[in-house]
Amino acid sequence: MSADNSRPDALLPLRNLCNSVKSSRDRVRDRESNECSGAFSLSNFWEIMNEAVKSVSQEGTKLSVMFSKPPLPSEEGCVKIAESVQKSVLTLTTVYFWLPKSQGVTLRKVLRDATAQVLDGLAQLLEALLCSPGESLSQEQLMSTGGVWAACDQFNQLPKDNRSAVLSVLTSCVGLVKDASEEMEQVRDHLEQAYAVAHYKQTHSHFLRVIKTIPHQTSPPSQTFYISVSDDNEGCVCVVSVDDLALSLYPPVERSAVEMNVCKLACVLKKVLEITRSSHVCVEADVSWVEFLNSAVEHNLEKIRSLLLL
Question: How far apart (Å, rounded) are the C-alpha atoms in residues 93 and 105?
């Protein structure tokens, strides 16, 4: 027997569920993960996490289908689907909080954002259903259902360890540096200095090659230290304001601003190389690369300073 669309209590379970999902989303965004006192298996974690995400996707689909055409489900039906969805949400958030900080800050950020997106998509779906209860499938419902699927599907492409997470950030930074370098080349006819600054693109690319070639050892001397070093590198690269450097090269040029931004970039690159060099994951074969890159930074910095004195 279907519920009367005019009875607000028929949809009360969905309203409560929507509030609960939003609360879970906010906890994921704001709370720290639990610390692991014993051995932690990252592969087992991802296996359980993927199952939890799959369950949320399936429950979201069932929810959307149930409300895809009139009449409204019975009050009992609303209670059952709300309980089922709530169970999948609780499992997802519980598993998320299993990932300890010792597995890497960058990996936790990636997983936090992805988990919050799933919960946010589910909340949007519930809001769409509550806005037009008992009606035929709306455009908002279609879009929000697709949003849940997309948020869940992205878990297949997430980096599965901190090294991969940091590397993805570094790769995105290389694209940013490349764009800035292309901007510099466009104004090269007006500012000869830009030509020298563009060499930093090559330096940064070489650094990325070093990171990629660092072996992922199965039993490193200190896994926590390795993860910490990776996060330090990610942080150093991200604080660079490449846009500031590119903008300072456009007329009218203030030489002091150019020098300040170039020196800032040089300091960051040297810091990244220093952290990489001191890490146990930098094997002997990588040392010469690190030293070469450090010399390249110094060489290009001096070259730019010379040009600024002209």
Answer: 18
Q: State the CB neighbour count (10 A cutoff) for residue 52.
A: 23
Q: How far is the C-alpha of 92 from the C-alpha of 228, rounded, in Å?
A: 26
CA 18 to chain centre: 25
> How confident is the model over 74-121, as pLDDT tens digits?
889 999 999 999 999 999 999 999 999 888 888 999 999 999 999 999
Split at pLDDT 50, 70, 90, the class of 238 is very low
pTM, entire model: 0.69
The single-letter code of the amino acid at 80 is K
Distance of CA 2 to the CA centre of its chain: 44
Contacts of 32 (CB under 8 A, 6+ apart): 101
Single out the residue of 300, 34, 38, 9 nearest to residue 133, CA to CA: 9
Q: Hey, what long-range contacts does 57-60 have (CB within 8 A, 24 or more apart)?
A: 57/148, 57/149, 57/152, 57/153, 58/88, 59/84, 59/85, 59/88, 60/85, 60/121, 60/122, 60/125, 60/145, 60/148, 60/149, 60/152
Residue in this structure with the two tokens 């878990």, named with its chain if needed: 155
CA distance 157 to 150: 11
Question: Backbone phi, then psi, for 215, in 5-degree steps?
Answer: -65, 140
Residues 48-54: contacts with CB under 8 Å, at least 24 apart:
48/95, 48/98, 49/95, 49/96, 49/111, 49/155, 50/155, 52/88, 52/91, 52/92, 52/95, 53/92, 53/118, 53/152, 53/155, 54/152
Measured from the Cβ of residue 111, the count of other Cβ atoms closer than 10 Å reads: 25
CA distance 98 to 51: 14
Neighbours of 278 (CB within 10 A): 10
